[in-house]
């Protein structure tokens, strides 16, 4: 077997499920996705919208549907939730096969940070094409929401290094990022506070950081694509450390 893939039998039932009408049903749906989160590169980005729903939200939309003339006070949140629900089902249906990690191939990590989530992908090259090995992602804690983009990227990097520690320990790793500041942080000494703690943690790893030259759209594409031709990636990168 070349890798892991989502189970087609279970996929069909998940993809065809209607939008849950109660909080309990939504929680059941989200629980059923635990297996699939490893296949979805931005799982937490969409799931967080659904996790934030409360019983009062379902009550409000139910009341507004019974009284056709009433407007739902949480219409904006409800619209976002339905979009997130639809996107999750679509991503499950098109989930990529994950390759088993090959110790004879160089590991590459792509990091990305949004306003309220951080994500990373561990990928490896096969015949000039990058294939995903695993995706890691989490939503930001309240105290992390005001972090700068580079700080959030560090969180994404630290998480994937922690999750894949056994796989990546003692290996040379290439990190793809939007910001050259990440390389500066890894090389810095004598920093204080959380930057100092992060620099100390990253100093234990051997990494080459490469910056995407063409901006956010391209690095987003690298992370979002299930299979990315290496040639397209190499054209966008410059070594910065």
> What is the end-to-end distance?
37 Å
Q: Sheet with the most strands?
A: 7 strands, mixed
**Sequence of secondary-structure elements:** EHHHHHEEEEHHEHHEHEHE
Mind telling me the C-alpha Rg?
Answer: 20 Å
Widest β-sheet, arrangement of strands: 8-5-4-3-6-7-9
| Mean of pLDDT | 76
Shape: globular
Number of strands: 9
Strand content: 15-25%
CATH architectural group of the largest domain: Roll
Overview of this protein structure:
Keywords: Aspartyl protease, Endonuclease, Hydrolase, Nuclease, Nucleotidyltransferase, Protease, RNA-directed DNA polymerase, Transferase. This is Reverse transcriptase RNase H-like domain-containing protein. The chain has 241 residues and is α+β, with helices and mostly antiparallel strands. The protein has 2 domains: 91 residues; 142 residues, Ubiquitin-like (UB roll), CATH 3.10.20. Helices cover 45% and strands 20% of the residues. The chain has 11 helices and 9 strands. The strands form 2 sheets. Strands 8-5-4-3-6-7-9 form a 7-stranded mixed sheet. The protein has a two-stranded antiparallel ribbon with strand order 1-2. Helix 1 packs antiparallel against helix 5 and helix 3 packs antiparallel against helix 5.
How would the blueprint of this fold be written?
Layout: E1 3-4, H1 8-15, H2 23-32, H3 43-51, H4 55-66, H5 75-93, E2 98-99, E3 108-113, E4 117-126, E5 129-139, H6 149-163, H7 165-168, E6 172-177, H8 181-187, H9 193-202, E7 206-212, H10 216-224, E8 228-229, H11 230-234, E9 237-239
Parallel strand pairs: 3-6, 6-7
Antiparallel strand pairs: 1-2, 3-4, 4-5, 5-8, 7-9
Helix pairs in contact: 1-5, 3-5
């Amino acid at each position: 077997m070349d890798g892991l893939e989502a189970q087609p039998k279970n996929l069909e039932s998940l993809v065809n499920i209607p939008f849950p009408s109660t909080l309990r049903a939504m929680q059941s749906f989200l629980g059923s996705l635990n297996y699939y989160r490893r296949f979805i590169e931005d799982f937490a980005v969409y799931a967080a919208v659904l996790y934030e729903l409360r019983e009062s939200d379902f009550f409000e939309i139910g009341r507004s549907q019974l009284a056709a003339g009433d407007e739902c006070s949480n219409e904006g949140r409800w619209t976002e939730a339905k979009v997130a629900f639809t996107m999750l089902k679509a991503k499950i249906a098109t989930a990529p096969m994950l390759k088993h990690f090959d110790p004879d191939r160089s590991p590459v990590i792509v990091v990305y940070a949004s306003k309220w989530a951080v994500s990373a992908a561990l990928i490896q090259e096969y015949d000039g094409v990058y294939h995903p090995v695993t995706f890691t992602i989490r939503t930001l804690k309240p105290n992390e929401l005001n972090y700068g983009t580079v700080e959030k990227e560090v969180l994404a990097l630290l998480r994937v290094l922690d999750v894949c520690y056994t796989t990546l320990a003692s290996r040379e790793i290439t990190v793809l990022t939007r910001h050259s500041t990440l390389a500066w942080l890894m090389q810095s000494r004598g920093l204080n506070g959380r930057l100092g703690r992060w620099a100390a943690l990253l100093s234990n790893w051997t990494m080459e950081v490469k910056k995407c030259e063409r901006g956010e759209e391209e690095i987003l594409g690298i992370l979002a694509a299930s299979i990315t031709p290496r040639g397209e990636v190499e054209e966008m990168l410059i070594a910065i450390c």
